[in-house]
Amino acid sequence: MKVALIKQILDVFGPWSSVLWKDTDHKRIFDIWPGKAVLWEMTCLLKADWYVIPQQLETDYTADAVLQYPGRTDLITKYTTNVSAPTNIPLEEYDVVITIDPILDVPKRMGTLFAYYMREHWDRLYSRSLQRPIGNYDLFLAHMMDAREELASLPQAVSFPYLRAPEVVRSLFQLDKEEAVWVDWRTLQALGMTERWSEASEAAARRVEAVIGLPTRYKGDIFRSKYGVVDPPSWGDALGYLEGIGRCRFYIGVGRYSGAGQGLCDAASLGCICFGEQDKAYHSLLCHPACLCSDMAEMPIKVRKVVSSTDLQAEILAWQDKALREYFVNRPLSIIEKAIRIKHEGLVFAKPQQS
Known about the structure:
Layout: E1 3-8, H1 40-46, E2 49-53, H2 60-67, H3 72-79, E3 96-100, E4 113-117, H4 124-131, E5 139-142, E6 156-159, H5 166-172, E7 178-183, H6 185-191, H7 199-212, E8 216-217, H8 237-246, E9 248-252, H9 263-269, E10 273-277, H10 281-286, E11 292-293, H11 299-307, H12 310-350
Parallel strand pairs: 1-2, 1-3, 3-4, 4-5, 5-6, 7-8, 7-9, 9-10, 10-11
Helix pairs in contact: 6-7
């Protein structure tokens, strides 16, 4: 299956350059990928080509991440390379094209399957897309897992997480585990009662360490700037972030304000024992019952119980690995494969009969 991923220039996540998979690899792509590793595992799993195109659509996310900050558009434009015009992308050569936001004028009657994620779930276009994909798109991929679970027809909105590649991740980060816990920066911001990384977040980390009795590690300083945009960009920062998590035996992602909780999946792919919360979509799919918390107060109790039992730890890791492969690899890939079949069958059926 040949896949293209496409984003706009003012989307700060993902690579800041168009790049074909044949010209990069799992680690080298971080040379053009600053900040968070959102969709990195998906890129590796699908061996996808990336295209960065000029701005086509100003979404609520664009306004929040870039346009409200004077000079940020110029900064991003300065450091982004190999920008591709949409008309220069060989869309017909791909089995699947996935865009970040509905940014393409999708051609009719092309065999390629066209799908899109919304970058942010709070964007107004997200709720609109849950009713029906925008334009001529075939699929809206609802990363909050709040659409239909099964694919019935095209076009359709379908629950679809960010895909994972645990085998790739573990082959790259073969790290010895230390008896330490990595705490999600969002958890520490919530405990510090602040919307940005601050001294209050640092103090919260020290409190967590005292309560659970394990060395606590974290990385939040990059988020002193909204969305982690800095000058120069933090090239390769995600690589160090993943290495840091990978050295810890445990990961805590409890207490974050909102979202599906996809950060916890980074840790699961790295083989960490993950503590999450019941109301986060990805956590409920991935976490063992012994690690799912109803609130922050329950977290230290569950952590101490798991830390004290090596048998329970082995059971949890087996549970997580099975869930990763089922919900973040096999099921979503089967949805894509079914969608391709439905589209091709529809095109064949729609062909005019020969006289």
